[in-house]
Amino acid sequence: MKLLIVDDDPLVRQSLRLLLGKEDDFEAVGTAGDGREAIAACEREQPDVILLDIRMPVMDGIECLKAIKQQWPSIRVMMLTTFRDEHDIRMALKAGAEGFMLKSTPVENMAQQLRAMQAGTAIL
Q1: Please, where are the H alpha helices in 22-106?
Q2: pTM for the whole thing?
Q3: What angle separates helix 10-21 from helix 107-118, to the nearest 10 degrees?
């Protein structure tokens, strides 16, 4: 599974890329620091799955998600956040996200949830 990691925090991006990249069935094809970079990375890398931070500068995760789903509806998107905000969850699901995960989720669970989402299960 080709994975794109999008987060405005460079430490989060690199940590997730390193940790999830160790999974045999994941290929971390790139990272991006904001929504505009994510759209460009989708064009270049054609990921299967995106881990997308909901709150970012330049273009936030919801706007980015809408643009991605418009251009590449088959890409599955897992929203990633620090906050349990029901409004954000509703907005992300309405925009087309297949899942929603807290950044505090252990990496092993993240990998399992990404696999389940790729297989068609909604993850909340």
Answers
A1: 35-45, 61-71, 86-95
A2: 0.92
A3: 70
